């Protein structure tokens, strides 16, 4: 299952970078600083049944709430 989580994290990072026109390095720093990697892992059971667009919106909302984007 760890491979599935990593695959999801990579997909969501790529989509986040495209949406916010951010480098992968900058997005990784943002995700690390605001514990988004851990958030994705903790939400995996729900995230894997939702589409990436929905999951990206959820992640964006978390970051907006924290004032990060």
Would you mind describing this structure in some detail?
- By secondary structure, the chain is an all-alpha fold.
- It has one domain.
- Helices cover 78% and strands 0% of the residues.
- The protein contains 5 helices and no strands.
- Helix 1 (2-20) crosses helix 5 (52-65).
- The longest helix has 19 residues, at 2-20.
- The chain starts with a helix and ends with a helix.
- The model has no long low-confidence stretch (mean pLDDT 96).
- This is DUF3791 domain-containing protein.
- It comes from Oribacterium parvum ACB1.
- InterPro entries: DUF3791 (IPR024269).
Features:
mainly alpha
Indicate the topology.
Layout: H1 2-20, H2 24-33, H3 36-42, H4 44-47, H5 52-65
InterPro entries: DUF3791
Protein name: DUF3791 domain-containing protein
Order of helices and strands: HHHHH
What helical percentage do the residues reach?
A: over 70%
Q: What does the radius of gyration come to?
A: 11 Å
Structural class: mainly alpha
Number of strands: 0
Give the biggest sheet. none
Q: Helix count, per DSSP? A: 5
Strand residue content: under 5%
Question: CA-to-CA gap between the ends?
Answer: 30 Å
Judging from the principal axes of the Cα atoms, what is the shape? Answer: globular
Number of domains: 1
Low-confidence stretches: none
Mean of residue pLDDT values: 96
Organism: Oribacterium parvum ACB1
InterPro entries: DUF3791 (IPR024269)
Pfam families: DUF3791 (PF12668)
Protein name: DUF3791 domain-containing protein
């Amino acid at each position: 299952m760890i491979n599935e989580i990593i695959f999801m994290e990579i997909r969501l990072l790529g989509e986040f970078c495209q949406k916010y026109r951010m480098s992968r390095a900058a997005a990784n720093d943002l995700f690390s600083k605001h514990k988004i990697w851990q958030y994705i892992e903790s939400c995996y059971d729900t995230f894997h049944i939702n589409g990436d667009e929905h999951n990206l919106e959820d992640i964006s909302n978390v970051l907006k709430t924290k004032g990060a984007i």
